[in-house]
Every structure is written in structure tokens, then in C-alpha cells.
Amino acid sequence: MEAVIFFLAAIGAIGGAVGVVALQNPFYSVLALVAHLFSLAALFLLLTAAFVAAAQVVVYAGAVMVLYVFVVAYVGGGGEPVADPIHGQRFLGILVASILFIELSVAVLGSALLALETEGPKVPAGFGDPAAVGRLLLEKFLLPFEASSILLLIAAVGAIVLAQRKRESEPQEGVSGPV
Amino acid sequence: MSATSWAWLVLLFPLVGSIAIALSFKAIPSKAAGLIGTAAIGAAFICGIAALVCLLGEDPEARHHASSLWDYASVAGLDIKLGIYVDPLSVFMVLVVTGVSTLIHLYSYGYMQSDEGYHRFFSYLNFFVFSMLLLVLAGNFVLLIVGWAFVGFASYALISFWYRRKTATKAGMKAFVINVVGDIGLVLAAFLIFREIGSFDYGTVFEKAPQVFHTNEWTVVAICLLLLVGAFAKSAQLPFHTWLPDAMEGPTPVSSLIHAATMVTAGVYLIARTHTLFVLAPTAADIAAFVGLATLLVAGTIALVMTDLKRAIAYSTMSQIGYMIMGVSIGAYSAGMFHLMTHAFFKALLFMAAGSIISAMANKQNIDEMSGFGKAMRFTSITFVCGALALAAFPGTSGFFSKDEILAYAHARGGMYDIFQILGYFGALLTAIYSFRLVFRVLPGKPCKEAQELIDTGHLAHETPRNPASGEEEDTDVGFPGAHHHIAEQSPGMKIAMGVLAFLALFAGLVQVPGVDETITHFLDPVFADSPLAEIVPSVGASWVGLAIGAAISLVGIGIAYWLYIVRPETPAALIRRFGWLHTFLYNKWYFDELIDVLIVRPALAIGRFANRFFERFVVDGLVTGTEETVRGASGVVRAVQNGFVRSYALLLIVGFAGLVLYFLIVQS
Amino acid sequence: MNIEWYIVLSALLFGIGAVGILVRRSPMVILLCLELMLNAGNLALVAFSREVGNQQGQVFALVVMVIAACEVVVGLGLIVAIFRRKLPLNVDDLRELRG
Amino acid sequence: MINVLLWAPLAFGIVGLFLRGRAVGWWATLGTVVTLGVAIGMVAGFDSGSSGLQYTVDTPWISGLGVDYSLGIDGLNLFLILLTTLLWVGGTAFAAFREQERPQLFFFLMLLAETATLGSFLAQDLLLFVLFFDFMLVPFYFLFGSWGTDRKDGPTASAATLKMMIYTLIGSLLMLVAAIATAIISADGGHLTFSIADLQRQGLPLDSQRWIFWFFAAAFLVKMPAFLLHGWMPDAYRAAPLPVLAVFSGVLAKVGAYGFLRIVLPLFPEATVEFQEVVLIIALASILYGSVMAFTQTNVRLIAGYSSVAQLGFITAGIFALRADGSDGAVLQMVNHGLVVAPVFIIVAILFERTGTEDIREMGGMALRAPVLAALFLIVALATLAMPGSANFIGEFYILNGLFQAKIVFALIAISGVAMSAYYALRLYQATMHNRLPSRPGGGMLSREISLRDGIVLAPLVLCIVALAFYPQLILHRTAPTVQQTVSAATGGQAPEATLAGGEPKVLQFEEVFSAQKEP
Amino acid sequence: MNFHEPHIDYAGIAPIIALTVGLVVVLMTSVIRPLRRTAPFLTILTLGATAGLLIWHWDESLSLITGALQLDNLAISISLIAIFMAAACVVLSIGEPATREAGSGEYHALLLGSVLGMVLLAQASNMITFFVAIETLSIPLYILCATNLRREGSLESGLKYLIVGSLGSATLLYGMAFLYGGTGATDFAGVASGIVHKGLLGDGLILVGIAMAAVGLAFKTSIAPFHQWTPDVYQGAPTPITAFMAVATKAAAFAVFLRFFDVALGPQVDDWAPALAVLAAISIVVGNVGALGQSSLKRLLGYSGIAQAGYMLGGVVVASESGTSSLIFYLAAYAFMNLAAFAVVIARERETIFGDDIRAVEGLGASRPLLAWPLTISMLGLAGLPATAGFIGKLYLIEALVEGDYTWLAVFIAVGTMISLGYYLKVVAAMWMRTGGETVPGGSPAIAGASPEADPIDPGASRRIYLVGPALLAAAATVFFGIIPQPLVDFASHAGASLFG
């Protein structure tokens, strides 16, 4: 049963990922990513990481992706020419990436870490549920937690700085985009 | 005062004179400079005599003294002191040098009168005398080398005295470089001596040498050969002689002092001085003797055909020195030195006379254009004849005794040394012929234009002087005596000098007449006492036989000359036509210059050109530019990769990433 | 399911993301691909946290999500700014700086 | 005292930055004179008997890195310091007599350079030496580059100078690494020190000596410059302003040779012995090549430049004869060469002012109107060709003797350089002073007599040459003890010449001449 | 199970708090009109306070907030360097168009944010903190690079930095994931013990993790072949930001480099040290060679930065106390030398039409000695010539390398330095050995950095005290520490001791 779900989710994830990369129109890419994220959430659940899965759905598939859609809508998602201006980039890119993948797999499969061949140890109930993770966040990882909140603030400021309308740099023509 | 302190004074005077004249340059009138110069040398001569007296006062065995002022440069086991060595030999040389120099200074006092470079001339001349005295008085090999090189420089300076003459500067350079080669020979000899004996000091060396070396051991032979290089270079022996004829570019007094009387005989002195070593290296000694022989013959033949008055005399000088070298090498030490002395007299004289004539010729030196000076310049011609007689070993003259004594000794030594006697006599024949060739070409006959002018108007040709070698006009404002050049035999100083020398040329031989008196032999004996060869003495009878033969030969020679140039003046031309090839061969001086040019000069220049054109550009700079190019190329690559495409940056990043991972995976297994 | 599978899967996703960055030219899509890679990381983290049996990995994953969000925000901001400057939205055309 | 010697020039230079006009030059000259005074004082007070360091200063500088500020004078550097200070007076005065653009900067750099050079001679701490050695280049870089002459047919001054910088720093930087390696390896985990004396005591394993030796050798050989490494020289020499070039080639080249004596022989003795032949071959190549080039050049600067290559070849050969006499000669010759080459360049400057050319084919006949100049030049030229009777001769005599006793064959080859030197030196003199001036279209050669002010600069130098010619012992016997010590440090105690000079003379067999070069 | 409040040493995190508060306050100024102009002062104030608080903790060694941070001399010294550069950046930003574009408040807030990231990173002793910190450091820089919105180059650099940077972070993250998976711990000490006790020494998982972590950090320190963003970003970003970035980012990244590799990955040193050594060598070559043909000064400094990073990496490679100290020393020296250089570049690019092109400094020696001297000194220093801190730095590094048996790398440094003369001296020559190019505005617009969206010319820039002052001071410091390095050496050796002592 678990295996079935895993494979379904895995296929979903891979498919989503490939979609992101392959689809011409950025708008569709975004949608593909959403699909990808959902299947990841499923995998997280399999790994008894309920809270992470939830966050994944809410934060990503919710907030972030919406933002994406807006921007794509704003700037308009024209496709890109098929021919790659950089000679051999596409071929090399795929080649190197696959080599990388093989290397990583080798590293993982060849590892002496026995636990990897298991489904992992028995974990207490409530492993990875909001309460547990939340406590961890507020006890051991208080500082990263706070820091990341500040980071969010900074990012927000940055977005404003970059995207704010200034008189002199006001573009004349209006918005253009699909939807 | 002891002999050594006198010797120091001998050195001091010329040096002071030279420096004084140099510094007082333009400050004092030229006459004063001349006087100072002459006086300085005169003083040196007197001190020399004083030293002689001191020496004679001692018993013959003790007649050698060393004295040194300060450590010149002696550390790390090298003993180089500023020291002199006084013994009969050096004193003998001192007397010859200072004596002749005094006269020549006197001569130059008049001769150079109208020359712009008067101060310079006397400063140089004094410096030369100082150097020559340093050479003969030096107490160790290093100081010897110093003196040796100094005279070399002095001769350079005086050869290119008229430095606006390209020919003169070239000749000077040639002389200097060849002499430096000689110096190098001496330096190497000194090193080898030091290696074997551990000292540069004459005393130590000559004392230890017999124990250190066994006869003809290669080291001592090598030492002697190296010394010979020095000696030959200085004394213009084959194959280092080519500089001497060119040296005639210098003012005539210079030719007469340096290139006839004193410096060129340094080689003879050197061999005599180091006879201890040569005795241990008979091979080297014989080589020296043969070179001397060869030189005297070759030079003699060339002198037969030279048309340039001074050069002709120069070649005769070479051949006379050949006699001396031969003499001292085979062991006729005192005879060699004796000939050295007499030669100094008559050759100096010949040059003075020649100079006088040449100045009368407005600097033309070609004997083909000369004739009839017998009438025009009586005094000069007389002295000229005296010199020629002595040179031709006319019976009774000084040259007669000295030359024949050498040959007699060769005979007395016997064996293969008879060759030296026989060929020596042949050389004597040549000598007689060429010396009187000059006499008969220049003095008698109907006066040439200049001579005629002299007879008629009583003063000299007023043409603008030209360089006899290149024919270009002398620029007279540099110091070359200009048209207003009235000196030929008119200044008393010159007359005195020539007179005295003429007298000596004729009668100096009488101090050493075999069987009658042998002053010089006796005086020098203590020096050569240690040499087994000194034991060999030709019997009085043998000597007289030799003298007889010599007399005959010289008369025959003179006769031939007379027949050729007076009786049948057309024959020489006929002979030249008949033996054209021989004449050209001799006229081109056996092609020695050309030989050296091909063997040494051209290769050196070729190497230089190669180094410049190819090596420096392609190898040395190539090294630089090569690296430079590589780096630049690499820089180009780096900047090409930096192509502005963010995606290719990412690619490189991931490539590097993959590479790193790969490395670690390899490390793991 | 063995943890290995998850990790290998995440490696694959990581690779795909990399390919995306290398071959796509629209800055927006490239941002998406970055998201892919970060998520691959997340997957690995969560899988490992399961494997070692502590939840630090999950916390890490959460933090990563926040950071990913920040990057997206900033990235999109940049895209907007570029769009405002009327510059082409194609990373290949942004190469004034090179050499 | 020694601190004053080292820093006085810099102090004067800094003050000079705030002066105006010609005053700067005079002030700078004053500075160099003061320094010279101090140096003379030290020579006077020098105890010629001892071989050890005198006037030493030694305080920790960077304790963390084991670097000390330690200076000292012994036989090796005593006269080099005197030479440095002397030549700087000459160069600075000569420059001060002329209008310089941006004089403050020029003279500041001049004096900075003097401090740096003195530093590298005085330093008794390996790292301090390296520091000064590298630093020397900086002021000269600016002097050559900013006040140099751009050539129409060649690289600009700054390009030529850049080449020089990079080229000479190749060695210097490797030397830095080598120096540090020396200290660390010989400290071997213990207390880290760069003090040359201590390092000598601690010693170094042979295998590390090997590469370290070459790193140092590279630095020194480039600086000299030696054959094949002289690529920077022609351009730099043609670019450099002459008064600066006078001190540069007069002193800096010596630092390289000095480095061999001060550092290489004591610290890497085994390696030195092992590589003796190799270095000797390089030295010979320098002698021959330098001489050949010198007598084929027509540019006056290059004649002097290449002759220096040859001269430093002699000096190197003398050092690597590894005999006391050879090294004595080398030290003496360093001073001599400095004394002759600087005047040569000053004379070149004077000639250039009169003829507007540096090509001997376009000069000549100068002696006619300028006899004094000619006389001075003659003396210099004769000294250059190591005329017997000059101190240079004694220098070369000692060098060659050392080489002859150690390695006959090398000596025989080396000595041919002497003959060539006679030719090129005399050629230089004749071509400028003698003959007639070739009629140039440009014409305009005024053969003026040397002006009094230049005479004031030139005469003292020439006087020193003459004085030394009469009494080279002055230098030799102050140098000898230290040299003896240094050399025996390398050759492991036994001093070869001792057996020769005193004891039973040994008889050399014929074969030994050729086997001689093989014995260590 | 109930909630245990973690123990928080407020004194220990006081510097961080100060920074954070300062950040917020500065941000406020941009909304409250009357405070508009106060942002720079407040920023300086904040930085000063933070620095003070840090110095207050000098020679302590505190583990803060359940091991998230480790406040020791290493962290403090690095943070101080970063703060110093930030302060300098604030001063140099006076009159910088970017501040107007972005709004002074935001600009400085972002700057502070980046500094916060650096301070955290310098102390980070836990992978999560590490990751958060490194992002806190980077993200503001992405923005700041792009703040000169008018100029295409600025935006381009921002985007490039963002893309490649995020790629780097992703890699780093993935590496951390592996390490966590292997050891089951996120704090450095845990990782180390995990590697040892789980018998994972030399295990593929760990090693690949290390590899990826190395990539991430190498990217931040711009080590070749992960360097390519550097020249572009340096050139495109507003110059004050470049100045800040060039030193501070390196400093922070190297701090964590040291901590992470020497503490967490210490057990594996024999595996990673050679790899890093090779990377160092590569970047020495690439950096120096790449800088040779550059005419843009900022680009040139970018490449030189790559090379310098290569030198510094040597200090990490040897993984020894002296290595760490030498690295700190070098960073400090590097801060001075770079500051001097950039200050001059800024002055000239505001004064002339040549922007940061080398023509902007031609003839400076004659016309603007007060600018020429600092730039000269800094160039000589970067080239490592004696009597500058740069020489001592190299000396220190080489000593560490030779001690650690990496002599060959030392030789590489020597060779690299030699090549570097080729471009450093080119700048010097341009200043002293050429006659000045015309400095008045109105030249051809084709010239680099003078495109239509060129920044306004400020003819008086080279007399502005806030540009000349820093330049002179930095140059003075460079020389001072070149002649009297002892204080700086002590500073550095304390830092080194804190990591290994």
C-alpha cells in the first residue's frame, strides 16, 4: 500500500518537475510546480512529517504560488526561442546534471549507513506533528526561527525597494499578459 | 744610501714628472713641461748610476736586494707586496732605459716643439719610463705584470697620440689588445707558479723552483710557455708581431724610444729574469729560441721590401729582437743583454734620423719619394749612416760585437744549436742588405722636391701634412704638428741626442770585446751564476773566427746593397718583375694580418653578431615574451569563459561541483 | 519503503532542477527551478529526519521553506524591476557585464 | 649609530617632501652626505681584526612570526655600505644640479631607495633581508617609470620598468618562500627564528637545502643579472634616468652577489658545494656572453650594462671558487665595479647632454675640447678593463687565482673575458673621445669641457678609484677574516689556500688539471 | 510533555539584538518624514554599538541559545571586520545615487540586515543557523546590488547574483542534508562526533556532503571555479556595496568555513584539505590571469579578489591555529587595502566621465596626489610588496602553509603574486607615468560606465572629505601595519587561538 502511494507521489513529483522545466509558457510551469509541491506533500506525509507537509501545502502551493501567478500575469510570460544561443549548453547541462544525479545516487547507495536500507526506526506517536516540531522550533532552534522571521522582513523590504513605483522610472505602457 | 733606496728614487722621478706635467697642464708653458720631463728622466739616470755604484761596491755574490714599501694586496696566502728587486740585471736595464730615454726626451724636446699636445706627450713619455722601470725593478710577478701592462698602456697612449687619426687609434687598439693577451699569459703563469710554489715573490720562487720542479716537468714547461706568450706579445715575436709595424703611427720619438730601444726588449729581459725556470724547462727554451730565429728571418725578408721608411726600420727591430730572444733562450744571457743595449743605441738613432727626414718630407714616409738628403741634411745623414753601419754589424761597430757574440755562443753550445749560428749569419746578411737599402735609397742621388727646397731656401716643405697611411688630411689643431713644422735637425737638443747616440752606436761595442774586456759579462755573471748554461763560454779563438765571418757577411751585404741601388738602380724593379709572387708575398708581410683577421677577428665578430641578432632576440627575449604570451593567452581564455551568460556560469559551477563530488567519491574508495 | 528511495528521488529532482536552471532563459522559470532544487533538499532532509529518528531535519525543512519564499519574493521583485526598466525578460539578453 | 645610517636618508627624504624648488635637491644631497659621513665613521671605527658582526642591533620585530629587527656590519658588507653611501652622494648631487620635474617626489624616492638598499646590506635577519631586498625595487620602479625616457623604437619607460619589476620579483618572491621554509625546517618545531646566525647554527637537511638553494640563487642571479636571466636589463637600462641608473647598476647588482656570500654559503653549505659547477657554468656564460654583447653594442648604456653582466659573472665565479682568495677578490671587485660603473653612467649623461645621442657611432673627438673629461673617462675606462695596477685588477686577480686553484679549466675560460673587456672598454673610450666626429646631418655636437659642478661629482669617484689602485689592501684586510669564516663555513672548515701558501708545495700531475674540476 | 524555555544569555546575544533593533529603527526612518536624513547616522550608531558590545566580549567563549551560536574571538574579530567595512560603506554611500533610488532608510536597513547575517554566520555553530545566517547575509546583498535601478548593469548584477547564489545555497543545503542524514545531528560538534562514532570516516555520504558544503562556501568566498559571478557583480553593483561585499562577505564566509570545516568536519581533514588546496591553486591562477586584461577597475579588483580568496583559502587548508590566525590577519589587511582602493575609485567615478575605467585615474599622481597615494599604496599592498600590511599577510600565510606542509601552495602564491604585478602596477603606472586624461564631463558617451543612464557627475568629488578621508586612513593603516604589524598579529593570533586553543 505504502509503496503504491510512494510511487504515485514520486511519479507526480517527477512529472511536476519535468513539467516545470519543459513547459514553454511560464504560467504552465507554475502550475506544474504546484502539482509537484502537492506530491511532495504526500511524500512528507509518508515520512511522518505531517506539519511539514501542511506547511508545504499552505505556504507554497498557497501563498508563494499565488504571488507567482500574479507576477507572471503582470510581466506576461512570453515563451523563449527554441534554439539555445549558448552553443552546447543544453546538451552539456543535461549531461552534467545526470552525472551529478548518478554520483549522488552512488554516494547514497554505496553508503555504509545501514539505516538507509530500513524504513527508519520506530518513532513515537506524534513524531513530526505540529506540537513536536513547534516545541523544537521554540526551544532548540529558537534563534534560526527568529532569524528567519527577520529575513522575511528584509525580503519584504527588498521586494518593495525593487518593485516600488518611482516617478522617474515609471514605464508608460500598461500591463500586458495572458489570463 | 743603499742600492734599493736609489732604485726607489729611480722609480719616483719619472712618476712625479709625469703627474706634475699632467696636472700642470696648460698652467705652465710647454717648454717648461719639456724641461721637467727631460730633467726627471735625467735624474732617474743619475740615480741609476748611483745604484750601480752601490752595487759595484759589494762583493759579487751579495749583489741582489729586495725591498718593499707596503703590503699591496696580501691576504688569504697571496703575498703581493709593493716590492722591488735590485740586482745587476735590473740595474743594467735601468741604465739602458733611463740613458736612452734621457736622450730621446732631449730629442723630443725639440722635435715636438710645435705640437699642440706637448704637455700630454711628455706626461705620457715620463709615465712610460716609469712603467718600464717598474717592469725591470719589480720584485714579484704581480708587480711585474703591473709594469708590463703599464708600458703596454703607455705605448697605446703614444701610438694613438694623434688621436684624430683613425689609423692611429686603430693601431693603438691593436697594440693594446695584443699586449693584453700577453698580460694574460703572464697572469696565468703567475697563477701556476703560485699553485706550485705558493708565492709570487722572485726570491722565493727562484729559490724554491729547483726543488719543486724536476727538469721538463709539464708544469714548469707550461709556466715557461705562458711567460713566453707575454714575452712574444711585448717583443713583437711571431705570431704576435703584427702590432709593431702599425705602431709606427705614433710620433717618431715614440717609435724610437718605445718601439725600438726599450719596451719591445722587455721580453728579452723577462726571459733573462726567469732563466732559472727556463733552465728547468729546456723544451720551452728551445721553442723560444726557434721562434726568435723564425722572427728574425721573417722580419728580415719583409724589411727588404718595405717602402715605408719607419715600417722598414720597425721590421728590422723585430728581427734584431729575434736575435736577442734567441740568445737569452739558448743561454747566451750576457750576450743577449749586450745586444739589447747596443741595439737600443743604434736603433734609437736610426729612428731619430728617420724622424728628422720624415719631418723634412712633410710627413711623407715613402722612401720611393725620397732621395738626395745626403746633401740636404748632412748631420742627419751622417748619423743615419752610423746607425745603419751598427745595424749592419759593420766591423768595429757596436752591433758587430754584440750580434756575433750571440752566434758564437750558439756555435759553442754546439749540437743542433749550430743551426742558430748558420741561419743567424744568413739573417745578418739580410740585415746588412736592407739597412743599406734604406741608406742608398734615401741619401744619395738627385734631391727630391722637398730636399731641393731645403737646399735652396734652407727651410722645410710647407705642404699641409697628410696621413701617409690613409692619405686623409691631418687636422692640425688637435696636436698634430702643422705646416709650420721647422724642426728637422735644427734644434740643438736633437743634435746632441743624435750625436751622443751615433757615438755610442759606433763605439759602445768596445766595452765587450772577446778576449780583451768583457765588462758586461762580468757584471751580469752573478745573476746567471746559477744557470749551468752560463758555464759554456766560447773560446776567444772561436769568437774571433765568428767575428771574422760576421765582418765578411756584413761587407758582402753592404756590397750587394750598393750594387743593387747605386750601380744598377734598375735591377730591383727587374727583380720585382721577375719574382712578382715573392715580392707580393713579402710586401704583404707574409699575410699575417690577414691570417689573424680570418682566424680570430672575424669569428669573434660573427659570434657577436649571432648573439645580437639571434640569441638575444629569440632565446633571451623569447624566454620573457614566451611566458608573457602564455599568461596573456590564459587570460584570454579566462575572459572568454566569462561570457556574461549567467547560465553558463551556473553550468561551470555545477561542473565544478560534479568534479568535486567525483574527487571525493574516488577518495572514498 | 526504504529511505534510500526517497533520497534517490530527491537527487533526481535536484538534477532536474539543475537542468532547468541550465536550459531555461525566462528568469521566472529559473526561479521555479531553484524552488525545485530547494524542495529536493527538503525532501532529503525530511527523509533523513525519518531515518535518524529526530525531527531536526523537519525543522530545517521548515526554515528552508521560509528562505525559499524569501528568495522567490526578492527574485520576483527583481523581475518586476527589470520589466520596469523595459529590459527583456531573458537572462541571455542581460550580458552587458562580461569579459 | 647603525640606525642613523639606515634611516637618515629616509628622514631627509620625508622632510624634503615639504621643501620647494631647487632646495629639495640640495637638501637631499645633504642627506646623502650626512649618511656618507656616518658610514665613513663606521669604517674608521671598524675593528679589522675580528670576523664577527659589529655595531649590531637586535630587537624582536614581529615576535609572533619570529622576525627580528637585527642589523650588523662585518667584513662582507662594510665596504658595500661605504660604496652605497658614496655612490648615492654622486647620483643625488648630479641630479640636484639639474632641473627635475616633481623634485620632491624624485628625491624622496632617491633617498627611500638608499635606505632600502642599505637595509638589505645591513640586515642580519633573513626575513628582514628579503623584505629590504624586495622593497628596493619599489622606489626604483617609480624612478625609472616616471622619470625615464620612452623609446620611439621600443617599449615605453613604464613598460620596460614593469618588465624589470616582474622579472626581478620572480626570484624575490620564491626567495620569500624559501626563506620561510629555511626557518621553519631548521627550527623543526622548535623556536622559530630568522636570525641568520642562528639558522647557520641549526643547519638544514641536504634535500631541503637543494631546492631552497635554487630559490635563493634564482633571486640573486636575476638581480645581477646573470646570463639568460638578464632579459629585463636592456630595456630597463635604456629607459632609466642616468643618475638613478648610476646608483642602480652600481649598487643593486651587488646585492645579489652579496646575498650569495651572506646567506647561501653559510646557510646551505652542502648544496653550495654540490651545485658549485652549475653556478660556475652560469657565471662563465655571463662573462663570455656579457663581453661579446658588450663589444657588439653601439648604445653606450648597453655597453656598460652588458659589461656589468660580465663583471658580475666574474664576481660570482670568485665566490663559487669556494676559496678565501676567490671570495676576497669578489668582495673587492663588488666595490670596484660599483666605483667604475657609476662614473661611466654619469659620463654617459654628460656626453648625452653634449651630443644628444647615446650611440657611439654618432660620437667622437670629444677629447679635443674636453681634455679633463677625457682624462677622467680614461681612468674609469682603464679601471673597467681591470688594468693591472688598478684595484679592479687585484680583484680579478684574486678571483681568477681562486678559480684557477680550485678549477683550472673554468679559470682558463673565464680569463678570456679579460681580453674582451680590454677591447670593449677601450672601444667605448675611443669611440667617444678619439677620432673625428662623424659629420651628422643633425650636427649640433658641442664638445664642451666638463662643467665644474659635474667635475665635483665625478672627480671624487675617480679619486677613489685611483686611491684604491694604490692600496687595495685597505679593503682586503678588513674583509679577509669574515670571508675566511664564510668560505670555510661552506667548505667545511678546511681552508684550501692555507695548505698551499705555507706548507710543503704540492706537485700537480698532468692528469690532475682535468680531474681538478671534478674534485669537490 | 511541557515546554522548556531555552536559556538565553542576553549579554551574549546583545550585539545581535542591537543590530536587529538598529535595523528596525533605521527602517522606520524611511517612513517617518522628519527622520529621512538620519538613516546614515543611525546606521553608524548601530554598527558602533554592536562593535562595542562585541569588543566587550573579547576573549570570552560563550555558547549561546542551546548551541546555536558560538561567540568567541574568531567570531568577534570577523564580525568587527564586517562591521568596519559596513561603516565604511555607509560613509562612502553619502551622495551615492543608489541611496536615492532605494531610499536611504531601506538602503541602510538592508545593509544592516546583511551585517546581521554576517555576525550570525561568524558565530554559527549549528547547520540550521549557518544556513539561515548565510541567506540573511546574501539576500540583502542581492537587493543592494540592484539598488541602482537606473543602471542596467546594476539590475543585471542583482539577478545574476541571485540566480547563481541561490544555486549555491541549494547545493549547500543539499550537502547539509547529507551530513545531517549521516550523523543525525545539526550542530557542528554533533556532526563531528557523529562522523567518528557512527564509523562514517571516509563514507561516501559524508564526503559528498562535504563536497557540496565546500561548493556552497567556495561560491560565497568566490573561489574558482565557482567564481564567475564575482567580476560581473562587483562591476555592476553600486561601488560602495562592492567595497562592502568584497571584504565582508569573504570574511564572514571564511569564518564559517573555518568553523565548519575545522570543527564539524575536522575528522575528515585529510580528505578535504588537498581538495581545497587544489581549489585555492586554481583560483590563484584564474584570478590573477583574469585580472590582467581588465580596463574596468572594479572588475580588476573583482578578479584580484578571486586570487586573494585563493591565498586566504590556504589558511583554511592547513587547518591549524597559525593558519586561522594568518587568515584573520590577511582579511584585516585586505579590508584596509580594498577600502583605500574603492574609496578612490568612487571618488573618480563620481568626478569623471570615465566611470570606473582605468582612464579615470590616469595622471592622478600629478593632479590629485591625495587620491593617488592611497590607491598606489593599496595596489602595492595587494601585490604584497614590503612595507605594507599585504606583505606581512602573505608572509604570515606562507609561514602557516610551509608549517602545514603545503609549500607547493606557498610557491603558487608566490607565482600568483608575480602575475598580479602585471595589473596592479598597470594601475600605478596609469596614475604616475601617464599624463592625465581629461576629467571634465562631456566626453563621448560611448565610454564604459558613461551610458545614457550614467550617474550625475560631481566635479568636487575628489575633495569630499568623506571620500578622501577613508582612503587616506585606510592607506595609512596599510602602511602602519606593514611597518608595525605586532598589534594586528596579536589580534589575529587571539582569534586563531580561540578556535584551536
Looking at this protein, list some descriptive labels.
heteropentamer, B: 669 residues, mainly alpha, two-stranded antiparallel ribbon, 27 helices, C: 99 residues, 77% helix
- Mean of the pLDDT scores of chain A? 84
For the largest interface in this structure, which chains are involved and how many residues does each contribute?
A: A-C, 91 and 70 residues
Mean pLDDT of chain B: 85
Beta-strand residue percentage of chain B: under 5%
Query: Which percent range fits the helix content of chain A?
Result: 55-70%
Weakly predicted, low-confidence segments of chain A: 167-179
Structural class of chain A: mainly alpha
Class by SSE composition of chain B: mainly alpha
The arrangement of helices and strands of chain A along the chain is HHHHHH
- Termini separation of chain B comes to 99 Å
How many beta-strand elements of chain B? 4
User: Mind describing the biggest β-sheet of chain B?
Assistant: 2 strands, antiparallel
For this structure, the quaternary state is heteropentamer
What best-fitting shape of chain B do the alpha-carbon axes yield?
globular
Spatial strand sequence of the major β-sheet of chain B: 1-2
Distinct helical segment count of chain B: 27
Low-confidence region ranges of chain B: none
Question: How would you concisely characterize the structure shown here?
Answer:
The complex is a heteropentamer of chains A (179), B (669), C (99), D (520) and E (501). With 179 residues, chain A is mainly alpha-helical. Chain A contains 6 helices and no strands.
Can you tell me about this structure?
The complex is a heteropentamer of chains A (179), B (669), C (99), D (520) and E (501). Helices cover 67% and strands 0% of the residues of chain A. With 179 residues, chain A is an all-alpha fold. The radius of gyration of chain A is 21 Å and the shape is globular. The model of chain A is unreliable at 167-179 (pLDDT under 50). Chain B is an all-alpha fold. Chain B has 27 helices and four strands. In chain B, the strands form two sheets. Chain B has a two-stranded antiparallel ribbon. Chain B has a two-stranded antiparallel sheet with strand order 3-4. Chain B is globular, with a radius of gyration of 31 Å. The model of chain B has no long low-confidence stretch (mean pLDDT 85). With 99 residues, chain C is mainly alpha-helical. Chain D is mostly helical. Helix content of chain D is 73%, strand content 3%. Chain D has helices at 2-16, 23-44, 75-96, 103-122, 126-135, 137-147, 157-187, 196-202, 206-223, 233-239, 242-267, 269-296, 300-320, 324-355, 366-369, 371-384, 391-406, 408-433, 452-470, 473-490, 496-501, 510-515; strands at 54-62, 67-73. In chain D, helix 3 runs antiparallel to helix 19 (452-470), helix 7 packs across helix 10 (233-239) and helix 12 (269-296) runs antiparallel to helix 13. Chain D starts with a helix and ends in a 5-residue tail after the last helix. Classes of the chains: A mainly alpha (179), B mainly alpha (669), C mainly alpha (99), D mainly alpha (520), E mainly alpha (501). Chains in contact: A-B, A-C, A-E, B-C, B-D, B-E, C-E, D-E. The interface between A and C is large, with 91 and 70 residues.
